[in-house]
Amino acid sequence: MKWRRAGKRDLSQLLNFILPHEWRAVPYTSRLRRQGKAAFPEALEASVLVYKDGSDIQGTMMLTSAGLLLPVFTPARGQSQAIPPGPFPGWKDLALRLYSVMGPIDEVGWLDGVLPLRASVSIDYHLMIQNRDSFSNARRESFPYPAGLVVRTAYPRDLAALLPLQIRYELEEVVINREGHNEQTCRQNLKRSLHQQLVLMAELNGKVVAKAGTNARGFTADQVGGVFTVEDVRNSGIAFRVMEELLRWIFAQKSTVCLFVKKNNLPALSLYGKLGFREADGYRISYFKA
Question: Does residue 254 contact residue 222 with C-beta atoms inside 8 Å?
């Protein structure tokens, strides 16, 4: 067994390895899609390694230009296929480039033990999934939504209206060092999402009060993130309404939706449970330059 850089001939086999359990790796597979077709990212965007036993792929890793390392080793928790052993492969300038590792907890845990540098912070999550059939057949509670609530698709022209919610979401759920939060970077990321992702927003009497959207779009699965409701209208069913509508949009195209949520975020866990999500694996993000 050995690690090597992936070539064009590996693409079909790589997809066959990942797609049966794509919900574990949507941030990875989303970077293999170009205008709806399968292709490796450009060299300046990311580099891809594969781990092979003979002719069979046993694992893969992608390192993006932003320093995000995405591992995909085991198909699913409880499977007999083991995480690849042995030393971490040599990767030029890794110590300078690596910002974070993100993925299922078994893969990230293995990397935390073999990387040539140590994470400054690691956060564990529940990885939850929902599929089209269970969503379509589920009986969900009926909530009396506030009068004047409108849920609609968000467009690039909504950037200014959504930016305050995005900033508050990042400060509450994402950033490790609040003092290092960069509003301009937040704006650019939101602008990119409004162009590339599916984002829904809720307005109550003309005021933007909630948002939710995809943050990675794969071949058969989408990953949801950025779910946020302003404090003064929480527990009123608005987040449920936005998420339910978002799932309808996604399931018109994809068969599976996944998301990861902090283990102590009880309101979010309750919301996702009501929407039919189930815990399918653990998830971890390890930061090296927090």
Answer: yes
**Domains (ranges, CATH) in the chain?**
2-118 (3.40.630), 131-281 (3.40.630.30)
Which phi-psi region, left, alpha or beta, contains residue 67 (left: φ > 0; alpha: ψ -120 to 50)? Answer: left
User: Which has the closest alpha carbon to 224: 195, 245, 207?
Assistant: 245
CA atoms lying within 13 Å on the CB side of residue 255: 7
**CB–CB of 275/106 below 8 Å?**
no
Q: Residue 136 is encoded by which pair of tokens?
A: 């379509």
Taking the alpha carbons of 117, 123, 126, 129 in that order, is the dihedral positive or negative? negative
- State pLDDT tens for residues 246-280: 999 999 999 999 999 999 999 999 999 999 999 99
Tokens 């797609």 correspond to what residue? 19
Q: Which residue has 């080793």 as its token pair? A: 73
